[in-house]
Each structure stands twice: as structure tokens, then as C-alpha cells.
Design goal:
270 residues; alpha/beta; 5-stranded parallel sheet; 4-stranded mixed sheet; 11 helices
């Protein structure tokens, strides 16, 4: 079992590659839309959630709480979706959302601008200049989104295990490269330790989402870590009641065995 994330710009062929790889490996192919649907099931606006992923950071700069909430929900939805392995995910920054879990094969797909323009013109039926503007805008939005939320350059090759340029390598060849890496690279296969790590990431993400949704703790921005079912919550609370609420909400998440609040800063006396 493995998890593969494919990061791609608009019209680079990443979706076709993800589908090809999933079919070859007999894995599920999951895209951003599926994760948005899963995240929206917590009762948030589907339209706002999608806008937050597509048009950052102007939308989120006005609503800092929503930035934190949406990110928590998307991460919880994604980790729950992939925790069992055998998944190819293509969408915004999946490799960053899954950071801290089991080793994930992180692939980045790039292609020359003319290649992308040709693909976009076939799909969008726009003029050459309109397509160029569209592709550049989408790339800029995604780059800004990653920088704003994670403080990283989306194009930084060190964030990926493989970067494949589709200028001379076609989809089938790229699929072969990734497929061989998954099947022959033992470091990306789930063993018991890897599965436990992914389960812990899913629990921590779920705790964070539940805290962000609960009215009594929704004004907090907390870091949540989990190891073998033991949850550690770090951050700042604004009143003593919130400490008890954080502990209660965390304990109610399935699989959580213990909650450590030693790194939760108490409110400053007035």
C-alpha cells in the first residue's frame, strides 16, 4: 500500500497522469473536488471552501478564522481519505497537507508553456492571449496560496521526490516512472509503523478540525500532534474554560487515548 500525491499546474497533464497511475496500480484516484465535498460535509459553505482554495489569499486575508478553519477541514478530509493507502491524489498541496504522516511519494509534474497552452485551447476554446493570461493567473494563484498558507515556494523542487517534465516524456512514460517507483521503492510502502503514523496524522487532523468547528474553541489557532493515540495540543487559550473544552473535544475523537495540554498556554491574567 502507498499514497502518491501529484502536484501540477493548470493544463500540465497531471490529471491524466494521476488517472493512468491509479489504473496501473489498481489504486483509487482522488482529486481536490472529492476532498472539498468531504470537507464541506462538516457544515461549511461549499462555495466559500472552493473559493478559499482557488482564489487566495485575498479572500482569506479578510477572514483569518476561515483560513484556519478551511485548512483544518481540508487536511482532516484528505488524511481520512488516504489513511488506508492505495491512493493517488492530485490537488492543491497534498504533499504539504500530509506532511508528518507516513512517507508519501510526492511527484511534481511540469510542462512547457506552449504545451499547456495547446491543451488549454482545446478545452477552453479561448484565444491564444486569453489562454496565456488564464494559465499564468492560475499558476500565480496556486503559488500564492502555498506561500500564504505554508510559507513555501510551490515550485521548490526540494518539496518533491520526483519532478517530471512532460516536454519530451509523454503521459505513458511518466506513468511508468511513477509506477516503478511505487512498486520497487520499499520506502513508500505501508508497514505497521507507517500505517500507525498515518492513523496518528488523521487523528490529529480530526481533533484540529473539531476544535475549529466548536463554538467554544473556534477562536483558537492550535497545533495538534498525535503519537500512538496520545494527542498533544499546543497554542494559546483566552480563558480557563477553553482548556477543559479542548481536552473534552480531543478525547471524544475516535482513537485518541490520552490528551496532553502541557504546551497549551493559559490565559494571561488581567
Amino acid at each position: 500500500m502507498s499514497v502518491v500525491t501529484i502536484s501540477r499546474g493548470t493544463f500540465t497533464g497531471g490529471k491524466r497522469l494521476a488517472e493512468c497511475l491509479a489504473e496501473r496500480l489498481k489504486y483509487r484516484c482522488v482529486d481536490r473536488d472529492a476532498i472539498v465535498e468531504k470537507a464541506a460535509a462538516w457544515g461549511v459553505s461549499h462555495a466559500e471552501l472552493r473559493a478559499a482554495l482557488e482564489k487566495p489569499p485575498s479572500f482569506l486575508e479578510r477572514f483569518r478564522y476561515k483560513r484556519y478553519l478551511y485548512l483544518a477541514l481540508v487536511q482532516a478530509a484528505l488524511t481520512e481519505e488516504v489513511r488506508g493507502g492505495d491512493v493517488v491524489y492530485h490537488g492543491h498541496c497534498g504533499h504539504l497537507l500530509l506532511k508528518g504522516g507516513t512517507p508519501v511519494l510526492r511527484a511534481r509534474i511540469i510542462a512547457p508553456l506552449e504545451y499547456r497552452i495547446s491543451m488549454a485551447q482545446d478545452r477552453l476554446r479561448l484565444s491564444y492571449n486569453e489562454v496565456v493570461a488564464y494559465v499564468k493567473k492560475m499558476d500565480n494563484d496556486r503559488r500564492t496560496w502555498a506561500q500564504y498558507l505554508y510559507g513555501v515556494d510551490w515550485n521548490d523542487a526540494s518539496l518533491y521526490d520526483l519532478v517530471i517534465n512532460l516536454e519530451y516524456i509523454d503521459i505513458e512514460q511518466a506513468c511508468n516512472i511513477l509506477g516503478s517507483t511505487v512498486t520497487q521503492g520499499k520506502c513508500f510502502h505501508f508497514d505497521k509503523k507507517c500505517q500507525a503514523s498515518m492513523d496518528d496524522l488523521a487523528r490529529a487532523s480530526r481533533v484540529k478540525a473539531e476544535l475549529a468547528l466548536n463554538p467554544g474553541t473556534s477562536n483558537l489557532e492550535l497545533d495538534v500532534l498525535c503519537e500512538e493515540g496520545d494527542v498533544r495540543v499546543k497554542g494559546k487559550v483566552y480563558d480557563t474554560d477553553q482548556i477543559e473544552q479542548v481536552a473534552r473535544i480531543a478525547r471524544e475523537v475516535e482513537g485518541v487515548s490520552r490528551v496532553d495540554l502541557d504546551e497549551l498556554a493559559p490565559p494571561v491574567p488581567t
